[in-house]
Amino acid sequence: MALTVIKNADFVVCMDDARQEIAGGAVAFRDGVIEAVGPGAAVCLDAADTIIDAAGCIVTPGLVNTHHHLYQSLTRSLPGAINAPLFGWLKRLYPIWAQYRPEDVFAATQLGLAELALSGCTLTSDHLYLFPNGVTLDDSIAAAQGIGLRFHATRGAMSVGESGGGLPPDSLVEAEPVILADTIRVIDRFHDPRPGAMLRIGVAPCSPFSVSQGLMRDAALLARDKGVMLHTHLAEDADDVAFSLAKFGCRPGHYAESLGWTGPDVWMAHCVQLDADEIALFARTRTGVAHCPCSNCRLGSGIAPLKAMFAQGVPLGLGVDGSASNDSGNLLLEARQALLLQRAIGGAAAFDPRDALFIATRGGAEMLGRDDCGSIAPGQRADIAIWDMGGPSSLGAWDKVAALVLCPPAAARDVFVEGRAVVRDGNLVQASRHDILAAADRSLARLKALF
Asked: Domains of the chain by range and CATH?
């Protein structure tokens, strides 16, 4: 029942309906829930058990990452994949991922989550779609529980290997009855639909080029029967669209629609190559898009039509994507890249820093079905990031809210999830940095010795 008050913030950026930015702001929270927000004089400090001074800082909702493959954190900057497009990049990486063991997935997941936490993220999804050598979704869930972030784990799958005309090697695909049975298992064991949930499960066949039409349909039926969300990759690059046209006789968005894969309980990763009809379809059906600009640039996939999607009301969030295709996991840098790319093709006024920050917080939370997160308002969960704007990368900014995107600080100073400190003074609180790095080093050494 302890009351914590953050006071003296240069600005509290609420991301509420009014988009308030409160100068000299304060936030009070107790038992994981925000109780009061306002100017410092309006938030009672007398009853506070803990007071956190945020002078010189901006306070925002915690950042929300809507697409990641955390297991990839051990395969960054891989020779032979550095200059490859999506399909060639995957073919280079599949043999290494096929050697993963449960301890490798655990280590990679904790490494990626530590990076996210230190850079201000409080809620992340994860798309794990390969399960070699006894790996299960339970491994990544256990890793997340050790870091303290709010976690949306999706049970991915690949069922069509090379011998069936798919992209992945046959050794990494699973039988579809096995996929569906294990998906039911993890939903029944782990999914928490309640407000304030720290763990939710989604259903996530990997992509149209690695699963059958039947599995896509069955996955949608299963997810809706269980009341969980659906996630997959879609229209990621030109090869992806060409595959859809050749294999299914239609563009990716319409293929998804034909299988029941549109609606407010669906979000797609990338959507770089959506056309105007597909954007209108997603806007009409409230189908979400996880925009991953750094990964899209890294793989040469193109520039997603973010401005058009935002203008038409497509639900949008940001995703860092896997560390093997981004090589980083910093959502403020993702927001900056999103803004810069839209301006590169649309002019200096094409996208505003505050809109990029909205997508990185409330937009992503709402897209993941979390109306209890993503904003700072009474009754919302206490997922909060504090940013010190006095460091070398941010000092000199006149508009400090815009500066979070234009010249972001290197890391968050403090991060709270459900009112609990995850990062304090730039250091992890609930997990050991030394242990995380040591485990990642062990797994990396073993994998490198195999190749």
From this structure: 3-61+376-428 (2.30.40.10), 63-367 (3.20.20.140)
